Amino acid sequence: MTNLNTISPYIIAEIGQAHEGSLGILYSYIDALAETGVDAVKFQMHIAEAESSEHEPFRVQFSLEDKTRFDYWKRMGFTLEQWKGIKQHCESLGLDFICSPFSNLAVDWLEEMGVEQYKIGSGEVNNFLILEKIARTGKPVILSSGMSSYAELDTTVAFLKERNVDFSILQCTTAYPTQPEHYGLNVIPELKNRYGVAVGFSDHSAKMETCIAATALGASILEFHVVFDRQLFGPDAKASLTIQETKNLVIAVRNIASALSHPIDKNTNADFASLKQIFEKSLAVNKDLPKNHILSFEDLEAKKPKGFGIDARHFQEVIGKVLKKDLKQWVFLNEGDLM
Fold first, then answer.
1. Which of 163, 181, 165 is nearest to 173 (CA)?
2. pLDDT tens digits for 97-106?
3. How much is the pTM?
C-alpha cells in the first residue's frame, strides 16, 4: 500500500459500475486513467448470489435492462479469472488495484488475487461479519464513513483497533451528486482529531474544487468516481469526474500539496531583497521647489526604484524640513537636500 504520509494525497479514481459489465469498457477506463497521474484505480466486486437477493430494491430506478437490482449485480459481475486479469492490467500500467468487497466470498477472491489493502464502502461499516473477515487477512483498510454517525464509527473503529487493523477513514456523503451544503468538509479535521489516523475524502460531487478543498484541509487520501461522459448510462455517471477533469484535478492537488509542504515564514523576506529594490520606492518632489522651501505632504511623490532617495516609508520625517537648495520637479529627495 502506498504510504499515506507522503507529501501528496493518495489519489484513487473509482471506475465503480461505469464499465456496465463490459470487460472491454473496463480496460478502456484503466488505460485512460493510467494517463492522468492517479495512484490507484478502484473497483467494486459484486458476486450477486453472495451479497444480494431478488428482494433488494433499486437505489434509483435507472436500469432499462435489469428487472431487479439482483439482476443488475449479476450483469456487473466478473469471474475470478477475469478479476485477476484486471488487477494484472492495472499493475502493468503502474496503477494500484483497489477493490471494495461486498461479500465474504469476494474477500476470499481478493485474497486469492493477492490484494494489498481493502476499501470498505459506506454500506459495510456496520457489517461486522465482513469486517471480521477482512481483519483476519491482516491487510490495511480504508473505511468510508458515508452513512455512519460518530456513534456507529466509534463502534467500528473500536472493533478494528481490537483486531490491530491498520485503517484510515474517509469523509464521505452518500448522495449522488453531492451538493455543496452536504460536502461535510468540516468533518475532515474532526475525524483526524477524533481517531488519530490518516483521513481522506471520498467525493461524489462531480466537481474538481471539492477534492482541492479537501487537500487544503489535510486530506491524505482522495477518492472520486470517473466516467468518460456524465451523460452516459449508469447510477454514478452524474456524480463522476471525466478523464480530462481527473487530469486537471491531479495537477491541482499536487500543486496544493506541494504548497502545503513548503510553509512560508513571513518573518523572513531576505529572498525578496532584489525584488524589493525594484518594486519599492524613493521619495521625490513633484514640482520645482526653491531653496529654503518648507516641505509639505503635497510636495512629495514616491518613485521607483528604492535606494535613490529617502525611503518612501519615511515621508513623515521630511515634512516640515527646509530645503538646502533648489530642486527640480521629479528629482529624488535625499538627506543631503535638507537642513
1. 181
2. 999 999 999 9
3. 0.86
